[in-house]
Design goal:
This protein has 325 residues and is an alpha/beta fold. It contains 12 helices and 10 strands. Helix 3 crosses helix 10. The chain starts with a helix and ends in a 10-residue tail after the last helix.
Length: 325
């Protein structure tokens, strides 16, 4: 009996020693080299500009000499860049700014993707881009009621054939009006000019990209697809609450930061702390004000919630997410 107790004491001491072993030097020293930030689009666009601004600000909260190096990896929508981030070693030296709904819409539509947002490590939110239904000066469709009523012709929507096409289809379906979707435009600026030139009656516009056209009066917001009182809610424009479709607030364009699955807890905590400090840093707020790129700083929990809510919403419109019908 005494020998068993002695063995038990030896085992207990051994286990206690294991429990009190300090973190490995690799984790204790993290980060001790540069961190790659993958942007799944080319230089100069919204994701690139937000990513670079946050990267610069993160460096203010990292050890001296550690940089956040922005890498543009466009291709296959945003799939190539997101997949590269997802498959990277879970060591905290690769993160990404990801695109919703673009990053999940193909999967919901039935396409097999080389990543799974259910398993990423969410780090935070930098911006929620809000869609508006916008119209031009000369369209006869001056109100939602006129879109919904039978008329001599149906309205033409200018779209780029990607996310905004899917969003326009969902809006038409949810608000019960017919529309003809023109998909030959290469980007949002070209689609908006088509509305201004009266090639199309309407379109879906993100708040940042339509701001200058609203100021000149060349475009008008017919519906603001966000809840009443949200950041930037324009005066006199109906929100999703006003039109009785609060679920359409899920149409937003989310810019969020993520890392590969399986990050050690200590690394994840450090990354989250650094990113959250950057998102709430006065230097980033100053950049936001001078660039007119709004900020919506959010926690990892908020990022996950936005993803889950949008995924559930889009799943209900799976049949409208395919590029061609």
């Amino acid at each position: 009996m005494g020998s068993y107790l002695a063995l038990g004491r030896v085992f207990a001491v051994s286990m206690l020693a294991c429990l009190t072993v300090p973190a490995s030097p690799a984790l204790a020293d993290y980060p001790d080299r540069n961190i790659d930030l993958i942007v799944p689009y080319g230089p100069g666009g919204g994701f690139d500009l937000y990513g670079r601004a946050v990267a610069r600000t993160m460096e203010l909260h990292l050890p001296k000499g550690v940089k956040v190096v922005t890498r543009n990896l466009p291709g296959a929508g945003s799939t190539k860049g997101i997949a590269t981030m997802f498959r990277a070693a879970p060591d905290g030296y690769t993160i990404g700014i990801v695109d919703l709904p673009g990053g999940i819409a193909p999967q919901i539509a039935g396409e097999k993707l080389p990543y799974d947002f259910d398993n990423v490590t969410w780090l935070g939110v930098v911006n929620v881009g809000v869609y508006s239904l916008v119209i031009g000066k000369n369209t006869p469709f001056r109100s939602l009621d006129l879109f919904q009523k039978t008329s001599d012709r149906i309205p033409y929507f200018a779209t780029t054939g990607s996310n905004d096409l899917a969003m326009a289809r969902i809006v038409a379906d949810a608000l019960q009006f017919k529309a003809k979707f023109l998909t030959g435009y290469t980007g949002a600026p070209e689609a908006q000019l088509a509305i201004i030139r009266s090639e199309a009656d309407a379109g879906m516009g993100i708040d940042v990209t339509i701001a200058k056209h609203l100021e000149t009066g060349d475009l008008k917001q017919l519906i603001w697809f966000q809840r009443k009182g949200a950041r930037g809610t324009p005066a006199g424009v109906p929100t999703v609450d006003d039109i009785g479709h609060p679920q359409l607030a899920n149409l937003g364009l989310y810019r969020m930061f993520a890392a590969p699955p399986g990050l050690p807890d200590a690394v994840q905590r450090k990354l989250v702390d650094v990113l959250q400090a950057a998102l709430n840093d006065p230097e980033l707020a100053k950049w936001s004000k001078t660039s007119n790129f709004p900020l919506d700083p959010g926690t990892p929990e908020e990022a996950k919630r936005l993803y889950m809510e949008q995924k559930a919403f889009l799943t209900g419109y799976r049949h409208l997410l395919k590029p061609e019908q």
